[in-house]
């Protein structure tokens, strides 16, 4: 059987490398990354995956899609139903993947008006959020995008003072209360480990 293939959101690149390296699995997996800016254009995720999988025989090669639903509104799952044995990460989005379903549900219930950041989003807040949403050119849109939010919750994968400072600055820039929760890599670890050690059968 061919080498297992992971097709991943570029926003998970650092975390995937860390988990694969720590698990001793890096040499046994091929990883392809899609652009992280699809985070802002979820309708483009499935077409991008179709293109990536165009040359892959999923009957002979184990494939894991390192995305949660990520705003596709079920279109990702509908596409994966066409591909025997291909699975994705659990959860509705990477925030739930990192936090786990139970913790994320409790965090959301405690304050539905929450903007979540991961390590990646804290590091690239300016590019993904400010420039990505056009707020550098149209700051008057800030209240339209974030007027219903009350807090920014940084779900930290690592203990990094620089990222913590960036997350705090993001909260201040958006006028939101700041909170932090250390999640580590969450469900990414067992999902990758199960996939590589016992890939799903077609």
* Sequence of secondary-structure elements: EHEHEHEHHEHHHEHEH
Percentage of residues in strands: 15-25%
Radius of gyration: 17 Å
Q: How would a crystallographer describe the biggest sheet?
A: 4 strands, parallel
How many helix segments?
10
Distance between the termini: 12 Å
User: Helix/strand/pairing class, anyone?
Assistant: alpha/beta
Helix content percent band: 40-55%
Strand order of the largest sheet: 2-1-3-4
Q: How many domains in all? A: 2
CATH domain topology of the largest domain: Rossmann fold
Report on this model:
With 202 residues, this protein is α/β, with parallel strands linked by helices. The protein has helices at 13-22, 45-52, 75-80, 94-99, 101-110, 119-123, 125-131, 142-146, 161-174, 188-197, and strands at 5-9, 30-34, 63-66, 87-88, 114-117, 151-156, 177-182. It folds into two domains: 5-94 and 185-197, Rossmann fold (3-Layer(aba) Sandwich), CATH 3.40.50; 101-182, no CATH class. The strands form two sheets. A four-stranded parallel beta sheet has the order 2-1-3-4, covered by helices on one side. Helix 1 packs across helix 10. The protein is globular and about 50 Å long. The model has no long low-confidence stretch (mean pLDDT 92).
